[in-house]
Structure formats: C-alpha cells, structure tokens
Amino acid sequence: MFQRFISKQLARPSGLFGRLFTARWLEKANAGMNRLTIEGLALGAHDRLLEVGFGSGCLLEMVLANNLCSSIAGVDVSREMIQHVSGRLRRYIEEGKAEIRYGDIESLPYGNGEFSKLCSVNTLYFWHDPRVALAECLRVLGVGGRLTLCFNAKADLAQWPGHVYGFTLYELSQVEEMLAAAGFSAIEVMSRNDPGQGLYYCVTGTAA
Ligand SMILES: C[S@@+](CC[C@H](N)C(=O)[O-])C[C@H]1O[C@@H](n2cnc3c(N)ncnc32)[C@H](O)[C@@H]1O
Predict the structure, then answer these.
(1) Roughly how many angstroms between the first and final C-alpha of the chain, as a whole number?
(2) Number of domains in the chain
C-alpha cells in the first residue's frame, strides 16, 4: 500500500504530501542526476532550454542561478509542482527569463523548433508511449537541437519494490535505439554510480 502511494507520488506529486514531502525528497535524492544532466546539456549563452517533468525545480534553478543559457521553460503534469516551482522561480519569471506551464511530454504546449535544448530527468518510466513523447521532443527542438534524458539503470531500479506500480524500466540500449528510431543522431552516454541513487545514465542526442 505504502509503496504504491510513493510510486504514485513520484509519477505525479499531489496533495499536501506532494507539496511538503515529495518536492523536498526529489530535490535531495536526484541532485546528482540533475547535475549530470546539466553537464550533458552543455548549455551556451544563446540556448533556450525546456525541461519536461521538473518536479522540485532544482535543475531549472541551478541553470538560472548560474546564468547558463538565455531562457528556460518548464512543463509538468503535476499542479502542485507547477505551483511550487512558479513560487520558487518567481524572480526569474518576472524578469522574463523563465516560464512554467502545465504540459505533458506527449503533447507539448509549444510550437515547432522553439528550443535548442530539452531535458527530462526521471520521467521516462512514466511515459505512456515513448515514440509519441520523442516525436514531440524532436518537434519542439530545431534541427541540431539537443535532447538529454537521465534515468536509472533498469537492474538498479528493479531492486526497489515500488517499481511494479506504474514504472516502465528501460535498458540503456533500448533508450539509445528509441532515440535513433525517433530521429536523433550523435548519441552520447554518460553514467554515474552514486551510493544513494545507484547507477544512472544521461543520454544525449541531436535532432536531425
Ligand atoms: C520522479 S519525478 C522527477 C522530478 C525531477 N525531474 C527530478 O528528477 O527530481 C517525475 C516528474 O515528472 C512529472 N511527469 C510525469 N509524467 C509526465 C509527463 N508525461 N509529462 C510531463 N511531466 C511528467 C511528474 O509530475 C513529476 O514532477
């Protein structure tokens, strides 16, 4: 029962628990994955970045605080996380450097080629149809835009009993194949093995 509840919170943080606990927990537990994703993105001054499934907003704040690109946008399906991150990034939103909206990776609320970089950390497990999701990523990235996905290794995440409640786990090779099939090239992989988080990958591809 508890594992099912936690799995649902991770897929879509909600309610008081989501606001008070899930956001803080994601912030702490996934800091290493967010740092590696920023490294994989190789942001430049002219980049416009979209993060899909920002959770606590940790990655977006790191990018903004360090002035790593020209502007950012974030979408998430959790109303609680949208509210939380809209407050957290208020200063940047008012300055016109950040935009936070509701959005599902399978139907992104943006036009073609609006972003040069796109990232998503720990959301792949919850996508209903990865082909649709990756086609959407490709669409909102201009040609030459870069997509970075960060996710836990299948064998490591499979050891956590809660994964049976709504998680789809992927081997690294499956993700590489999915990106290539969707139209991404020059695929690069980085990995880390943190004591608390286990093994995780950061896969980056260029929109052709
Ligand atoms: C496990 S949390 C990860 C949050 C953050 N990226 C991190 O790693 O700490 C997953 C987040 O993705 C969001 N999410 C899940 N499915 C999504 C989808 N289809 N489109 C957009 N966001 C999604 C959830 O609401 C949640 O905020």
Answers:
(1) 44
(2) 1
